[in-house]
Amino acid sequence: MRAGGTAGEDGATPGESPAAPQGADVVPPGAVHPAAPPEAPAVATAAGPGPASTEREFLALERELAVFLRRARAQSGEMAREVHPELESSAYGLFVRLDDAGAQRATELSAYFGVGKATMSRQLRALEQLGLVARDPDPADGRASLVRLTDEGRDRFRHVRDARRERYVRKLADWDRAEVAELARLLHHFNQRSEG
Question: How far apart are CA 71 and CA 18, in angstroms?
């Protein structure tokens, strides 16, 4: 499977250089490319000292996730501001969840995102003040309320979401659809494992 960034149009976040085109920076045989990622350190195993392939695999995963998450945070901030200039980056994930799952209790949202109730209350209060979410009484429990997107919130979110999807389509134009589906499946599986 090909690996690709999800940052701006050139694939780089502010302060990063876009990847050089294939064939650029030809490195003599035996030399180490200055931009090459460092090799994972050798790890002692029960059988004795030496590289452990599973350690290398998890170190590689950690490295790629660090880059992915940094770029995702930057993108979420940009997209939240596209929905409304006063939104913070975490708001975009709330829009995705509410649009996908429908009305939710604040406690369900805080559990889903793994944040404290006070943090979630503050974020929802800001969205309410902007008229992007509203609270309705929960028919299952009159003491609780359900948070939902307002019509304006949904329209603004979907406009930005559709533009983002078009960027993914362009960036992954050379991927087979089965590869895209497999990436989505693996990320979904990883997210499920990360809950709690």
Answer: 13
